[in-house]
Specification:
Keywords: DNA-binding, Transcription, Transcription regulation. It is built from 10 helices and 10 strands. With about 300 residues, it is α/β, with parallel strands linked by helices.
Amino acid sequence: MHLPSTKTLQAFLATAEHLNFTRAADALNLTQGAISRQILALEELLGVKLFFRHARGLSLTQQGVKFVPHAEDILHRLRLAIDDVSSTPSTIKLNAPSCVTAWLLPRLMAFQDAHPDIDVELTSTIKHHPDPNFDVFDAVISYGKVPKLPSVVSHLLFEERLTPICRPELLQSHGGDLSVKQLTQLTWLHANAEQSDWKLWLTHHGERGLTSKLNQHFSTLDQAMNAAQQGFGIAVGDVTLAEQDLAMKRLVMPFDDTVLSGHSYYFLFPKQSDNLMLDRLQHWLVAGYQAQRVD
């Protein structure tokens, strides 16, 4: 049986993450046509459709959703096999949800500029709650409540602060200023079927029963935010994760206030770890974020 190449699996996972051929191509430094051809070839090999093609983007089919964890596992096992024979003590293997990539990458690049002797290998997952698998990774960035794992060291990176976020053009097309009730004129983008982020923010504003007739659901926060970046609607997103797009005016916040979700992002590693570089990395990530908040 013919097997897909690692490049094809990487193209599939990048497309599943961004739900857009152009963005996936940018992430892998390939052309949009190359990504599209690899997805078509994979679909022909598997004999199923992995994506629905829409006029303004993509969405995963049921078969595509099922294939994501399999493709991740294959690449993880391959990396583990390579690391087993080639890794050095100066390497940190870090696993993190894909939604934190925009926040994390500039900090990792600055860390490696300051510590050229340390190599950080980042593996991302579309899971918002990645399992702290320390058999494969030296450290994990996790989302949720305060971890209660006696064998694990946890450091708070930042708290999740939510507010509606959209493209500036979408806001301008509705007069540039919206009341909470006028949000119902827009398509609401949800990061989960429970619509929990929207419900939390609306309850904070005393509008618990407010709903929109136009709704689009996604399986992860970064998928909902990618849809907001493309102008498909308005999402309730984390202001820290969106800081780069907000600073560059690619996205805007129609309302000034935010609401704490009660969840946070944590840097986790085993207490018994002999990798002394983990402390240096977690101090860099925490101190860098706190210094930015002071500025």
